[in-house]
Amino acid sequence: MDRKQRGIYCEEKVSSYLEEKGYLILERNFRIPLGEIDIIASCGSVLCAVEVKSVSGSWGLEELSSQISPAKRARIKKTLSIYLAQNPDNKYDLIRFDAAAVKGSEVIYLEGAF
Question: Based on the structure, what is the number of domains in the chain?
Answer without folding.
Answer: 1
